[in-house]
């Protein structure tokens, strides 16, 4: 069964759908990752359709454990940005700015061009767990990812409003990280939470 569908459109009226799937025969077309990586819930998928419903490209993205809670955004150049929670240290990254964080779950953040070719794919995480991402872009095509974290060593920049993990009663902080469009630079990254904790990125 496919689950957690999320949908977006680009300026050419292409429809891009993401979700997660445990199916070994999910339809892939010109894929970055042609085969499912594994896990009980499976991998996320990203599929693009033209305005007549014809499939343009479709791919798995995931590793040997589970990927879930995918979210999607489209930048001004029609690049497709997807973030999801992952338990897989072996997600096939591409030009990553960070490797696997070492905890239970990380966020995987990826960018695909409008024709489905991979621009970049990276982990975002620390020594414990990151989950429930949200993703957006700004007028300069910078990518902003937010979510919840229980990691004490998540990377923060000098201009962060909160550089250290607070934990609190819920043992979960919020975080927000901004990458440039090519993901070769972190513009800023910060924790944000109070003494009770934050909850999750979609709270």
How far apart lie the N and C ends?
A: 27 Å
SSE string? EEEEEEEEEEEE
The portion of residues forming beta strands comes to 35-45%
Class by alpha and beta content: mainly beta
Task: Please estimate the helix content.
Answer: under 10%
Count of β-strands: 12
- Unreliable stretches: none
The largest beta-sheet arranges its strands as 1-2-3-4
Shape: globular
Radius of gyration: 16 Å
Short description:
This protein has 203 residues and is mostly beta strands. It has strands spanning 3-9, 15-21, 43-49, 55-61, 67-74, 80-86, 106-112, 118-124, 130-137, 143-149, 173-179, 186-192. Helices cover 0% and strands 42% of the residues.
